[in-house]
Design a protein that fits this description.
Rossmann fold; six-stranded mixed beta sheet; 7 helices; 9 strands; globular
Length: 230
């Protein structure tokens, strides 16, 4: 279990984020742009600018070490890799591990010798997931990983994440602005607004019976995608 006893971010005297959470399995952070979702991930990864003050306290056996304890899957796969370098040269793992992880996400090993510009968005996102898993992380952070994908690719990537989470057993924080995705991917959900928690609990319960007006409004986000398998 990962327990965040305190995560507080200040910009001068202005408080940008003040949350606490426990993670045992899978947890989603849901909210509109500017709610503090990505700020939370950056704080966990240690990627905040020096101008911000971060006060963080986690359980003693959890160390925030991006690249070992923690791996990250960004929102846009098209900007995550260099288009001038072959995939294998950006995959910081042994050749055996590269092939193992590429196969794990349902891709052919020959993609390792191609450039990112030669791959589709869905292929790229699966490559990035494979790279993230290569270090056997304890915690996988995903920042709206399906936003840049079309409907079919979104379904494939979500199904893949569900399969890998069940098979490998890493803990996962999934950031999204769509509550129906949070319900499908994660058991627990935290709804953020302006850097504070306005609702938390089982994802299914929040999805079906939200108590906060802000959460109810989020249910309308992406309504046209409700045919997406839940």
């Amino acid at each position: 279990m990962v327990e965040c006893k305190k995560l507080r971010i200040l910009n001068g005297k202005k408080e940008l984020l003040n949350i606490q959470f426990k993670l045992s399995g899978s947890l989603s952070f849901v909210g509109q742009s500017g709610s503090g979702k990505s700020l939370t991930l950056k704080a966990i990864l240690g990627l905040l600018p020096n101008s911000l003050i971060c006060e963080a306290e986690f359980n003693a056996d959890f160390r925030m070490e991006a690249g070992s304890t923690i791996s990250f899957v960004p929102q846009n796969p098209f900007t995550a890799l260099s288009p001038m370098t072959k995939i294998s040269k950006q995959f910081f793992a042994s050749k055996i591990k590269q092939k193992e992880c590429i196969n794990m996400v349902g891709l052919d090993e020959e993609l390792l010798d191609r450039f990112s510009s030669e791959l589709s968005g869905g292929q790229l996102q699966r490559v990035i997931i494979a790279m993230a898993l290569a270090k056997n992380p304890r915690l996988l952070l995903l920042d709206e990983p399906t936003t840049a994908l079309d409907f079919d690719m979104k379904e494939r990537v979500i199904a893949l994440l569900e399969e890998l989470h069940k098979k490998i057993g890493f803990e996962m924080i999934f950031v999204t602005h769509e509550l129906f995705l949070a319900k499908r991917v994660c058991k627990e959900c935290i709804v953020l607004k302006n850097g504070i928690v306005v609702e938390r609990g089982a994802s299914e319960k929040i999805f079906n019976s939200p108590t906060c007006e802000y959460t109810k409004a989020l249910l309308n986000v992406g309504f046209e995608n409700r045919s997406f398998r839940q």
